[in-house]
Amino acid sequence: CFQLEEFEQIDFLRDRHVRFFQRTLQVLPERYASLETTRLTVMFFAVSGLDVLDALDVIDRNNMIEWIYSLQVLPTEDQSNLSRCGFRGSSHIGIPYSVKGPGVLHPYDSGHVAMTYTGLTSLLILGDDLSRVNKQACLAGLKALQLEDGSFCAVPEGSENDIRFIYCAACICYMLDDWSGMDIQKAIEYIRGSMSYDNGFGQGAGLESHGGWTFCAIASLCLMGRLEEALSQRELDRIRRWCIMRQQSGFHGRPNKPVDTCYSFWVGATLELLDVFQYTNYEKNRNYILSTQDRLVGGFAKWPDSHPDPLHAYLGLCGLSLIGEPNLRKVHPALNITQRAFQHLQQLQQTWRDNAGTCT
Amino acid sequence: QHGRVKIKSTAQQEEEKRKEREKKLKIYVAARDACFSKRREGVWDDEALQLTQQLLSSNPDFATLWNYRREILLHLETVREEDELQKIYEAELSFLESCLKMNPKSYGSWHHRGWVSARLPRPDWARELSLCDRCLSLDDRNFHCWDYRRMVVKMSGVPVDQELQFTDRLIGSNFSNYSSWHYRSTLLPLLHPESPEPPSPCQQLLKEYELVQNAFFTDPNDQSAWFYYRWLLGRAEREEMISCVYVSREEERVVVAFSRPVNVSAFTLIHIWNFVHFLTWTQICDLPPGTISDITNEHNLTVHWTEKHTHRDCALYTGRNESWCRDSATDQELFSELSVEKTSVLQSELQSCNQLQELEPLNKWCLLTIILLMRALDPLGYEKETLAHFQTLKEVDSMRSAYYSDLCSKFMIENTILKMEYAEVRVFSISDKKLTTLCHLDQLLLVTHINLSSNLLQRLPPQFAMLQCLEVLEADNNCIENLEGLYHLPKLEEVYLKNNKISKLADLQPLVSCPKLKHLDLRGNPITETTNIQSELAELLPSVTDLLKSLIH
């Protein structure tokens, strides 16, 4: 009897997680109000989470695709707002619902780099062919966000600028198969400048090393295809060492901090990209992630006995996928979507290239 | 989405909470709509300040509202007197303090505070520093606060040594303060900008060693001090250069090895050759037939790496079939992670660490550091101790034992390279050393014989193809299932792969591109169980004459 209980404690409750994400896509509790402006990212967590669980059939894909397109900030008739294009986080500004152009000029409406990133990935996951995405406008909007030092702001109005948004920009360019949206060399300089004395990466120059920012740095360089050019072998070895030392049971994001489920992905994926994930201890990692599983409502939390939330629910799944948990789709460690969605992207890109070839 | 611990409550409490929430929601939505319509109309008045304040109190991450507030403040700057502005901005700072109390990790709040501090007519930097002190005393890892503090220090011109003293205080009261060590690492180079290496070897450095030693002697299990220590001991990156040039009359080719993988876009060889590149440690240049084949001719080759403004000369003498020019790994101190300039300093550090190790034999950080120091001082001399320490390390930190095996393999390979150089031979032999991985293959360009038998290798990676001089490969008794690196090896004649895990014909495909291959030993591999294996092998590798013998069990 005691043995059965023990087993129940570490089994993976797939159906609960499917329902958790379904609920996320319907209604969120009031304490999530502060995420209103970034609602599209919450959708990404749920949709990609369902993809990892191979449960996309439980949602109405077409409806979602329409909603995402309604968030696209499209060029106006006279194209005067090109540098403000992209995707917005939700309808919180009050632009009337519309899925097609031309765009409506509104002084405070603009794309947000993280929303453009999650908007595009969500569309891909839902099976869309991106044909209604105004790629040139997105890239123009992206270009406008890059600063002299190579980092990106989130919105053209101005915001903090750091390595997170470089990652978003790299994903956007990678997906659209067009790097004209950013100055790669400057971005690489900023990334290099963010490397700390202990060979972790901070949010920017002089800032403390952190597992999340290290992921942004390495994943960006991989997407750009510049990992071994930008970093020497010695540096890569030290980055590996810093990351490997983050495993305590699960992973933490910085030395002397408690472990947190989401770092099983941030640090795990970084180690995978650096080809040393196989040196981590899968059992301890798995046990920690599952200890944060909410057995009643589904999802995962950052710590045991805490409330689950979409971000940790999604990244917990990704962390399990990295260690090969059965019945979970494999996740692409740089782009952070399933390999299935990634293959869909590759097919799309092949079609774009073929069409470009045949056009005169 | 910061951690929220679960608290149970009664049904009645739940109902009351729900009513509260609904009320708040109504007020919130009304305020938000009022705000937006005001902004749309371009209204920048006190009511607008009030409304945004209300909204931001409950949601400090609503970036648009901070932007609107900044617009209002900018407008007020044009119509109010300096004294009034001072009061307005001071009120802003108070408001921000209450926002930060509620959510000390809000990007919006910190960003706005930075903006306000920069615009205040009479800033009170001491007050800002004290805010940071209070914030850090509650959470000394809050990087938002650290970043803000850095900005304040910069704007107010606090001298670097004063900040160093600040870190002294923090570290003194609590050694386990990773953020303080980190901050210190950014301050030290500012004090000694002339030095190319971080930081310059001098009084300051010795003081740092003492400080960090106090830290890890006090709490040897805390990572902070160890990472900092490793940084102090470290050395600057080497210059990029051409590490080896090899010329062969027979293959009529020049092989160039670099100190790191390069993307060589325009490669000029003896003013003849430009050709396409890929990211690789070595570049192989095939010369036009007849260029160097006449053994009675002498040739002086120069390889230019134009991008890095460096070059290498190599002379191919009359009567000689091959020639080379190579940096010695020993002379280059290629494998030392640490700065070897001050051997005496490293000696004394090793002594201290050994002392600690006696007190704390199970401490992994100490073991790792000792290994590093030994490798810097005398890698060959300390080989036995290093292997013993790795054994302990794998027991003490078993979670990472695979990583340590890999690291140990790397060190053993480095030692073998050093021994090979000392013996001045072209034979690389490292058997029965529990090798789990291969590395530094770029250093083996000139090797003719390799013995990797009785190890734990699973593959011969693509970089193996750099071993352009290889004639004999012994790799019996491993777990090799993948031979992807054994392609285009022009001199390879004998390959011994007894007792490995080669399982299918496709695994042997790379060998087809090795024109001189005569002998192949596949005994004890799963592939020998395949039906018709003899005829299939004969078809795939017709010039391998010694195959049949290898299949007689």
> Largest sheet of chain A, order of strands side by side?
1-2
Please state roughly what percent of the residues of chain B sit in beta strands, choosing from under 5%, 5-15%, 15-25%, 25-35%, 35-45% or over 45%.
5-15%
Distance between the termini of chain A: 73 Å
Oligomer: heterodimer
Helix content estimate of chain B: 40-55%
Largest interface: A-B, 59 and 55 residues
Mean pLDDT of chain A: 90
End-to-end distance of chain B? 64 Å
Give the overall pLDDT of chain B as a whole number: 83
Radius of gyration of chain A: 20 Å
Structural class computed from helices and strand pairing of chain A: mainly alpha
The coarse overall form of chain B would be elongated
Q: What's the CATH C level of the domain at 425-548 in chain B?
A: Alpha Beta
Question: What percent of residues of chain A adopt helix (DSSP H or I)?
Answer: 40-55%
Largest sheet of chain A: 2 strands, antiparallel
The total beta strand count of chain B reads 12
Low-pLDDT segments of chain A: 1-8
